[in-house]
Amino acid sequence: xxxxxxxxxxxxxxxxxxxxxxxxxxxxxxxxxxxxxxxxxxxxxxxxxxxxxxxxxxxxxxxxxxxxxxxxxxxxxxxxxxxxxxxxxxxxxxxxxxxxxxxxxxxxxxxxxxxxxxxxxxxxxxxxxxxxxxxxxxxxxxxxxxxxxxxxxxxxxxxxxxxxxxxxxxxxxxxxxxxxxxxxxxxxxxxxxxxxxxxxxx
Length: 202
Description:
Layout (H helix, E strand, L loop, with lengths): L1 E5 L15 H11 L3 H21 L5 H19 L7 H18 L2 E5 L12 H13 L2 H10 L4 H15 L3 H30 L1
Antiparallel strand pairs: 1-2
Helix pairs in contact: 1-2, 1-3, 2-3, 2-4, 3-4, 5-8, 6-8, 7-8
């Protein structure tokens, strides 16, 4: 049985470090405009526009999300710069929409076969509180991994796991192993938390 718990309170930001180096940034500016000065101006306009987009959607970490958008565009640049047609800003905005959908989905944490959990409609507040508490106790890299791992279903899930494995420089099998270990530790933490709550109520 698969159980999805809706997180009603915000989790820490899940952004990865911005992968900017001199070469990739120079390539990005050259893609924006052959004139370095004009390219720099376009970059600032695009970044400011991205921040406004994320602010308008209610994200408190809008600048981080704007940088994540730029980061992803730079990673894709070698694949698209020779074939993309149109104003580059439109491509950034398309990536930002994808990130917005992704962040919305991250508000749902999928935990499979968690011992003691009932169906979604019957989840007790103690279980929910323990889930939030245990997620916050996880090291940030493990919390990011488990939330990212269960963010999609079907084909999107397969593509997501492939992307995660590539970013981490490991095989998809190794990624599954890491996710299984983190999930196991999370389940133990939740169960121990619930037991402590029940003991305190006795």
